[in-house]
Structures are given as structure tokens and as C-alpha cells.
Amino acid sequence: MTGAGVLLASRLARSDSGPAVLDPAAFVAQQPASSTGGGVAPAVDQQAPDFTLKTLDGGEVTLSSLQGKPVLMNFWASWCAPCRVEMPDLVRVYEAHKADGLVVLAINMTFQDSVSDVQAFVKEFNMTFPVLLDETGAVAHDQYRLRGLPMSFFVNRKGIIVRRHIGAMRGEQIDQFVGELLQ
């Protein structure tokens, strides 16, 4: 059992039924062949596609400017029940490892969310890492080919994707994956 996620179609849908635990094989089998625009999601052992996004606090973050640091990119939305389940562990792991150089980028699906809901979510979970706003879906759909929410990419210090995870991660998984990333 790996976790739960909300499937993405050409338009993200609200999940009011709460998190469902899915068999990983069944989850992948339900995925569309490709996201809008066609193409394939970036794979493990490939360079992470670069992007620049606005942050909730008015700044900007460019992924390539973080080369040399381990990065956990987590795509999420305020209405995503599985995102709510995993966020406390993401916050916990970040607080435990930020002194080790860990960078967490919480990339919100703002094109399917509202800034006021994002702000409330960030406050509720006391998220102190950068919250990026994907206002057009260009990063989520065109560059990272999201298949579900939450979806996370673990990027090493050289900018290479070392792990991709679809669905909510359990605390132990996040601990393990971040531990591997920090080595």
C-alpha cells in the first residue's frame, strides 16, 4: 500500500469522498495515457525540467537556481484530501532537515484552486517552506505531466530526478525518501 491520490484528467476534479487507499498497480492503470498536450512525465535519472514560478509571498523561485541542494517538489491543491493527509509529515520532515540543506517546494495547482484557499491551507499546516503558484498549469501539465495529486519529485543536488511518487506518502516513506536524497 503506497498511498492515496486524486486522479487528474484534462480538468482536476474535487474529491469530497476523502482519501482512498489504492493498490499502486491499480492506480497507475487508471491514469490517462498522457496529460493535456501529450508527452511523457520526466523520468527518474533525468534532469528535472526547469521552471520559474511566483511564490505566495510575492517572490519567484527558479528550480535551476537550487542546483547544489536536495529538493523535494510536492504538487498539491487545497481541496485535495490526500494532500491534507501528507502535508503534516512534509512539514515535519522539512523542519527536521532544513539545516541539512533540504529544500521543499510546495507547488500549488493555482489554476484549479484559489489564492485565499491556498493561504488558509498554508496557515492551517504552518508551512514555512516556499509555496509556488502554478497559475496556468504550465509546470504541472506541460513540464511534469501530473497524473494525480499529490505528486512528488525528489531532485538531487545535480538537478537529477531520483524518485517520483504519485499519491500521498506516509511519514515513513517521506523519511526514507528524504534520507536517500540527503546522502
UniProtKB/TrEMBL annotation:
SUPFAM superfamilies: Thioredoxin-like (SSF52833). GO terms for molecular function: antioxidant activity; oxidoreductase activity. InterPro entries: AhpC/TSA, Thioredoxin-like_sf, Thioredoxin_CS, Thioredoxin_domain, Thioredoxin_ResA/DsbE_sf. Residues 42-183 form the Thioredoxin domain. It comes from Kouleothrix aurantiaca. Pfam families: AhpC-TSA. It comes from the Bacteria. This is Thioredoxin domain-containing protein.
